[in-house]
Amino acid sequence: MPFDERAKVWMNGTLVPWQDAKIHVASHVVHYGSAVFEGMRCYDTPKGSACFRLDAHMRRLFDSARIYRMDPPCSLETMRAAVLETIRANELKACYIRPILYRGYQTLGINPLACPVEAAILTWEWGSYLGDGALDQGVDVRVSSWSRTAPNTFPALAKTAANYANSALIKMEAVVDGYAEGLALDSFGYVSEGSGQNVFLVRDAVLYTPPLSASILPGITRDAVMTIARDLGYRVREQMIPREMLYVADEVFLVGTAVEVTPVRSVDRIPVGSGARGPVTAAIQRTFFDIITGQVPDRHGWLTYVYGDPHREAVAAPHVARVP
Ligand code: PMP
After folding, report:
1. Which of 8, 93, 208, 218 could bridge to 15 as Cys pair (CB 3.0-4.6 Å)?
2. Is residue 319 over pLDDT 70?
3. Distances (CA, A) of 89 to 22, 110, 313, 321, 323
4. Which ligand 1 atom is at minimum distance from the Cα of 57?
5. In terms of Cα–Cα distance, which of 57, 108, 49 is closest to 307?
6. Nearest ligand 1 atom, CA 40
7. Can you say how many angstroms the Cα of residue 193 is from the centroid of all Cα atoms in its chain?
8. Rounded mean pLDDT of the chain?
9. Best substitution site from 198, 260, 288 to test ligand 1's pocket, by max atoms within 8 Å of Cβ?
10. Confidence (pTM)
């Protein structure tokens, strides 16, 4: 179990002990998946712990809530501050953070509007998502027999719990068949995304990634990787990608908060390029890890320091007693 049960959970404005972070089984979210959430990471850097792209994640959370007509119980600024407060309360250096807005306890009709919107933030330590060696050696993926949600069904731009029923089908099928991940096509048969990550292909040193119209989540790592690739001098094309381009690509890699930048070494048992991490993937991975671990200057303002801004000495790390 990845959880530290001594940790505190932020719920509707207060930090509560892990065991008390409960909701009633009659809550709307339990039955209808009526929640929107985020997943982000905090990294240990030489200048202290830093959240990667906190503002972008908060914006996407509130965009997701808006799409689902949810009125969050607190402002974006409050939720943002609460993320930092929760990491500090748990005295974490590096962690995964899961803010969630969900429909609570009131009625169990399909109409969620009467149910209160509640907010919570969980933190836990989470290492490599696809297992040891994935970042160096790459992973084996299959094209899923499940498609991503069609346009105008479940909004792909919203990170809602309901979408993860589709993701779980993709992931379970892949794992049961001996693959690390499944790559889904959209309802038109073009490459969409993995169960919980976006995808990039490289051919002749040009990067390709599906556009937002290919039923993808607008990944924040995807956005960062496009910026990094352009900074490194590569051309990046957001375009519809036919399935077979996966089989003739020089390189394929997955990106996301959980997987970070993970090479794909085979698709449907066909080796990608030489079957090992390619040079473009390696260059992007290196820059990405240098940024998140604070080894190079944060040119794009992607890091938010949890225990105070290292450039302003006056901001001292607040002292928080360890949870017993
Ligand atoms: N697609 C899906 C379906 C996801 O769940 C995720 C993870 N949030 C991503 C893409 C990658 O998004 P991000 O880089 O913002 O984590």
Report:
1. 8
2. no
3. 19, 37, 21, 8, 8
4. 15
5. 49
6. 16
7. 13
8. 94
9. 198
10. 0.94
